[in-house]
Amino acid sequence: MISIFIHMLNGILVYLLVKMLFLRSARIDPVADETKVILISVLSALLFVLHPLRVESVAWVAERKDLLYSFFTLVSIKTYILYLDSKNKRSRRRYYGISLILFALALLSKSMAVTLPAVLLVLDCFALNRVKPKDSLLKPGEWLRITRQILPDKLAYFGFSFAVIIITIITQTDSIATTALTFTQQIQNTIHNIGFYLWRLFVPLNLSLFYPYPPLEELVSLSYWLPALIAILVFSGASIVMAIRGNSIPLCCWLIYLVTLSPVSGIISVGSAIYADRYAYLTLLPITVLLSIALVNIFQIFPRFRSITFSLIAFSLLALGMLTHAQVSYWKTPITLWTHVLKLYPDAALAHRNISSAYNLMGYHEEALGHLEHISEQGWDVDQNLAGTLARLNQKPRAMALYEKMILSGKYAEEDSEVFRREVERLRRTEN
Question: What's the pTM value of the predicted model, to 2 decimals?
């Protein structure tokens, strides 16, 4: 219930922040009226709250940090805008300090918040009127002048971010670079991932707690990453052209998406999953806003198609709600959760191992044995889990053989080996 409450709060914050940005900046949409702004804000919030990609962050207690970092990030941005709008120095200092504290809380919640300073720079350039329309980044010396204008009040934010990045690198060295991909393959994987999250926004089917890496031959094939590259180039080019013509919001949203996704885009491999739904919790928000703008524009510009557009929006929200309800049902128990993963990825070793642990805890040792034997035959080292399950099933000779194999292997610490010896002795006594 706590996670649902925080998620609802985040939805309200999305509405307030989008509305604040649109009403504040005429550059986002020069012809925007308040009704249109409210429609865009409401639709953005509804899409944010109802989308099934956010189920993982809400249903998984361990990922409540996604909700918290998003909450503090959204409030920090809102407070930063209040700092810019304040007329006296005292209010500006107060709002600036509050925004920094909220940013620190976001970083303490989850290190993905390190991208906030870059997000603020993008907002400064394209949404908050700190770079005027007459300013041209192509003019000599213009970059330096604009940098002096918008960078100084970001230095404290960047300082916090760099500190967290250094700490994260030091403390998570063991979990980084767990795959044997070359640099070129990492780039190809990153390109694919950028496109993958966009695809999941529009087609949220077959969502999973775990997405294993594909076979290497698939990962390096053109069909794996080239469609995403084409989509990225087309979207980037169209956004730049629209910005040159005076509509900077597509470029603003696109840059924020790329910036916020960068820590989890696949440039640095962490763990055995290629991507995760929880990474999309906040990163897809700018694309969601862009989609809302497009739908509201179609609704207003084409009066003849208003009933069709309204029906499309209503149907989409209903479909998202139904998909979210279905996704929530997989999180009822560890068995239902990992069974769903195995339906999508039958050979996912992590899923087999985790569902076997769940079966063992429930006393279904035969079922656990089947999953462990399956991945053991694939070459995964699950001897310790397998030996324990065999012992529970009273298959003592096989269990003792595995324990003795682990003792002789020399791969385990002396304390673990001593535990294995005692277990072998116990099984021998009970066998006699």
Answer: 0.91
